[in-house]
Amino acid sequence: MTASDQAAGSGPLDVAAVVVTYNSSRHVTGLLDSLPDAFGDLSYSVVVVDNGSSDDTVELLARRTDCTVVPSTNDGYAAGINRAVRESPDASAILILNPDATLDPDSVPRMLETLRRPGTGIVAPRVREEDGRLSPTIRRGPTLARVGGLSFTGLPVFAERNERASEYESEHEVDWAVGAILLVDRECFDALDGLDESFFLYSEETDLSLRAKDAGWATMYTPRAGGMHIGGGSGESWATHTMQMLNRVRLYRRRAGDGRAWLYFGMTVLVELRRGLLGQRTSWPTLRALLRPSLRPPQMGANDTMLPR
Fold first, then answer.
1. Closest Cα to residue 127, out of 179, 184, 195, 205?
2. Is residue 152 pLDDT above 90, yes or no?
3. Which of 51, 83, 115, 133 has the lowest CB atom count within 10 Å?
4. H/E/C letters for each residue in 104-155?
């Protein structure tokens, strides 16, 4: 049942699905087509905010009758999600979806069962890659030891990304999870004032889960619900890589303070230098942007100080 099927005054919907598109015409149809089976008997709405696509995304969406489309300027992913929530009818939970994701049948009712457990604010499902392999979406909180992303060590003290297959077999609390598919309790979302729009792109889901935990809301992973995420839907370039690295520093600074953040920043510079020497081309312009704030993507608002605010 969609929002249009509900009679006025019948109470909030079960779930409001929100999507932000940006040149997403290759993928968003697959997402929207997967939703009816994914929601089962739940009542739901779908609002898509388009962040100024230059392809035919808006025209494609306008031909559909299963979603509300909100054209917007590109104020960032977090701002787009927050606007989609504001444009949605009242619902008990918010389903945040990347346009390059799809959901398995009955996945949302299963996620909602987990969300309704006391103290739970956010639920992440089991996600697979396009080729069917497990996508390791569970993450540990940021620390100085984890700045290098040394997942290959298999040691939690050095690895933010959790790649242990056994961790994906049972339901449990996590520090945070990749935000391609997240179900968020509406009360939790409102208490946190939504996503922090200052991140523009990347780290907003990390920040949301960590702030939720600070406020007493757990982020839960459940393998009982599933979906697929292609990845790279927002485009992969030196600019997006730079946003990733700067926002990691920015998030750490806000949580750990300036002193430790300078160490984190210095280690990030060394990490990018190492990656560049190993052949990762995007690391060289990112390294320059780290050391010269004027070269940073202007939409981040991180051009005025060496250590991003």
1. 179
2. no
3. 133
4. CCCHHHHHHHHHCCCCEEEEEEEEECCCCCECCCEECCCCCCCCCCCHHHCC
